[in-house]
Design goal:
about 800 residues, alpha/beta, GIY-YIG endonuclease
Length: about 800
């Protein structure tokens, strides 16, 4: 049916296609439809997608439009603030609105017809309240294990399918395939505690003892619980741990639960019950109070402040104070961390202060839970602890963003689009929403420190460790000299080994840092110079001795380790270089009685395994922890007395203008794991570059001298923060095609913007990735808003022109704004 004055909606779809799409609004939806609401639409011949309404109008220039099929929300999911944030991200990071939508929304909130669903209900379970359509879907999934939504649509002959699927997901009857695979790997953990009424009423507790007096095991279990909970200062305990410690069986616990003496909770491995009573207040030291006052003044004046605090200075205490004040005002808080591995320890601490408010949000939780957080964020007073994707949660009253370890490169999204910096995006979100922001780090990024120095954001410092604990003693050891004294078979100097031995004798824990996983990065034949290289990437295959494989750390190609050289057939293969696996092996030979564990991607790929290793280390069950940068930040282990870094030169000599900054940050951060509480720690670093300026600054813990030298060098050579950078990455299977395309694009950009603004094209350090040859073009833009916007738009036009030329349509061009 046609209408004289039809309404139209502009809709974003989760596709990498530029622009928004116009749809006709049927009469039955006109009174209900709102901007920010999810809708079901068809796109193409048969595909159905969830879209977001971003505009409503009375007319359109589009001649032919399709109708909206259904409304998926009763009220707007996204308000004007978040739609504006999405639009800014799309424009600033040179990507499509659909790519932003894809990054932002949990999968269960953007169901599409190509997705597969699985049945969660048992075969015998058919809910009484099941509709005819839902019944048919469950029956079909009983016959065939998984179906695409498009197949279900054909089965039902129902045009509006997504609302039905959505409801069934929310009822936990079915699951999207990706979410199901994720949830299958998330095991449930049983927690138990003595019933609350028994904890609070001694008379009732005595009655229980009389009730169970004939069962020695039940009595032992309750007595052990009471004694251990007093020592732990918490009520809930993992059932499996309790069974082992109390030396009782599962059946005894089952009986206590059945008799309503114990109560239980089944939680995901990533969840914890409220482990202790809420602490109502946090007391800051005089230095912390002064710093917090400065941060508040800065937030009032500029909207954001930077907290530069040495490792162990108590930055988290200040964050907690800020969170308490925000919650008291009825505001919501977002606490961002660079890695989900950091959330477990911090979650425990924050939970003691905010047991009713704290929620986690990261890749470790299910999509259904993420959707729950999205809905809770519209109205509930919450504190979200999460990774960079938490920025997209549609908070209804966001008052504060805390960005801890603000310097960390993990805050930059690398793949896929939008390739955003969580730090810069958070600053923008604060400007749009009116929220305030605290950034914190022991080693602030050059960009953030310059903002503070130029009084564009507030600034405060914590220059001493909390409780007056001294900073760790840092000792640099020359590898040139130590090679003469160290045992011939080891990569450790005599100084480092003596210190390790001393700390092990004192029962002090050791962290050994090496930012390279595997056993050895190179396998080479000393006879014919053959080297194990990846077939698909221009990179060496890393030797992994335990798995007996050669692996590419880019495309994940794997090969067995050859016993002889594949080229000359001689047994003259030599392992070169050093990885975490080799370090652990050497240390086990030197200290055979020590418990040594590795924390790297091979040994701790899952969050569960990471938690397990950290818990064992925290409990003192591991003597030496060898790890990559996974162990370098944000973790507090009070028994660590020594941090050992066998080789820091790899960090100093990487061909990147940020190499010095990253080296300073990483060494400072990992050094900060040593010597907490009242004991001064020790850090020993081995290097061939004792006279390198960064090494000298590290020895003095002199961030400001490092910053002044680094900022002068950036200004001299015209690098950020004095200019903006856009990196264009061109990829193609044929090297001649990508080289010609890159040269053509560079010539067009030079003609448009001038030679001074364009660097390249050039082959990057790794010139072939997964059989795609890579060339890069770097655009330098002066910090002028109008010029930046003009160059971005013109660059996108030149890329479109390149794709319209014969032979270049298949060349992939990636735009990376503010590359890290």
């Amino acid at each position: 049916m046609e209408f004289n004055n039809p309404l139209f909606a502009e809709i974003i779809l989760p596709l990498g296609v530029a622009g928004k799409f116009t749809y006709f609004i049927p009469e039955q939806f006109r009174d209900s439809i709102q901007i920010g609401m999810r809708v079901e639409v068809s796109f193409g011949r048969k595909k159905h997608y969830t879209g977001i309404v971003v505009a409503l109008s009375q007319s359109t220039n589009v001649t032919k439009t399709k109708p909206i099929l259904s409304l998926l929300d009763e009220h707007s999911l996204l308000d004007a603030t978040h739609l504006q944030f999405w639009e800014w991200m799309s424009e600033y990071y040179m990507c499509t609105p659909g790519e932003v939508m894809n990054a932002a929304m949990p999968a269960v909130l953007k169901v599409e017809s190509q997705q597969k669903v699985l049945r969660l209900l048992e075969t015998s379970e058919i809910p009484v309240e099941c509709s005819d359509a839902e019944y048919l879907i469950l029956e079909a999934l009983d016959i065939k294990n998984q179906l695409t939504i498009q197949e279900i649509q054909s089965l039902l002959q129902e045009e509006r399918i997504i609302p039905i699927i959505q409801q069934m997901i929310e009822k936990n009857w079915i699951a999207l395939f990706d979410s199901f695979e994720e949830s299958k790997s998330i095991k449930k953990v049983r927690w138990i505690q003595l019933k609350r009424k028994l904890q609070e009423d001694e008379i009732k507790l005595n009655e229980i003892f009389l009730q169970i007096q004939k069962s020695k095991l039940q009595t032992r279990a309750v007595l052990f619980y009471l004694k251990s909970s007093e020592k732990r200062n918490q009520n809930w305990i993992r059932a499996i741990a309790f069974q082992n410690d109390a030396k009782v069986s599962k059946s005894i616990i089952d009986k206590l639960v059945h008799n309503e003496i114990f109560e239980e909770k089944l939680l995901d491995i990533f969840e914890m019950p409220d482990l202790s009573l809420s602490e109502t207040n946090i007391i800051l030291s005089e230095e912390q109070e002064l710093a917090y006052s400065k941060l508040k003044v800065g937030m009032m004046q500029y909207g954001a402040s930077l907290l530069h605090g040495v490792t162990g200075s108590g930055k988290t205490a200040i964050y907690i104070k800020a969170i308490q004040e925000a919650l008291n005002k009825g505001q919501q808080v977002l606490y961002l961390l660079p890695e989900i591995a950091l959330t477990s320890q911090l979650f425990k601490r924050l939970k003691t202060y905010f047991p009713e408010h704290l929620i986690e949000y990261h890749s470790g939780i299910s999509d259904l839970k993420k959707a729950g957080v999205w809905r809770a964020a519209r109205h509930q007073n919450i504190v979200v602890l999460g990774a960079r994707s938490s920025l997209f949660i549609p908070f209804g009253n966001l008052g504060l963003i805390i960005l801890d370890e603000e310097h960390d490169g993990s805050f930059k999204q690398s793949e896929p689009a939008p390739r955003y910096s969580a730090r810069d995006a958070a600053l923008k979100l604060c400007r749009i929403s009116g929220a305030k922001m605290i950034m914190g780090s022991a080693t602030p990024s050059i960009e953030s420190f310059m903002l503070a120095q130029s009084q564009k954001i507030g600034f405060a410092q914590l220059l001493t460790r909390f409780g007056s604990t001294a900073l760790p003693e840092l000792k640099m050891v020359s590898l040139r000299e130590s090679n003469n004294t160290a045992p011939f078979h080891t990569h450790f100097s005599g100084v480092m080994l003596d210190s390790m031995r001393s700390h092990l004798e004192k029962k002090s824990q050791i962290i050994v840092f090496k930012n390279r996983r595997g056993y050895a990065p190179v396998l080479k034949c000393v006879n014919c110079n053959w080297e194990a290289m990846c077939d698909r990437c221009d990179i060496h295959l890393t030797l992994h001795k335990i798995q007996h494989k050669l692996k590419c750390h880019i495309c994940n190609l794997q090969r067995p380790i050859p016993s002889k050289c594949p080229q000359c057939n001689n047994s003259t293969l030599l392992e070169k270089g050093l990885g975490t696996e080799k370090i652990a092996e050497e240390l086990q030979e030197i200290f055979p009685s020590a418990v040594i564990q590795r924390m790297d991607l091979e040994n701790a790929r899952t969050r569960k395994k990471q938690q397990e290793i950290f818990s064992e280390f925290e409990a003192g069950e591991i003597d030496i922890l060898v790890g990559t940068q996974m162990i370098s930040k944000g973790l507090d282990f009070e028994k660590v007395g020594l941090v050992a870094i066998p080789d820091m030169d790899q960090l100093l000599h990487y061909p990147d203008f940020r190499a010095n900054e990253r080296a300073f940050q990483l060494i400072t951060q990992v050094s900060g794991r040593s010597g907490r509480r009242e004991i001064q720690g020790q850090v020993i670093v081995q290097t061939y570059s004792l006279n390198h300026p960064v090494v000298i600054d590290l020895q003095k813990s002199d961030f400001e001298t490092f910053y002044k030298r680094e900022i002068a060098e950036r200004q001299k050579f015209n690098y950020p923060p004095f200019v903006r950078l856009i990196k264009l990455e061109l990829l193609h299977r044929q090297v001649t095609v990508v080289e010609l395309a890159a040269q053509n694009l560079a010539n067009a950009l030079i003609k448009e913007f001038g030679k001074m603004r364009i660097l390249g094209p050039a082959e990057p350090v790794i010139g072939r990735v997964n059989n795609l040859f890579v060339r890069e073009i770097l655009i330098k833009i002066e910090r002028n808003k109008e010029m930046i916007e003009h160059i971005k738009k013109q660059t996108q036009l030149e890329i479109a022109r390149l794709h319209s030329q014969g032979g270049f349509s298949s060349v992939r061009v990636i735009c990376d704004v503010d590359p890290q």
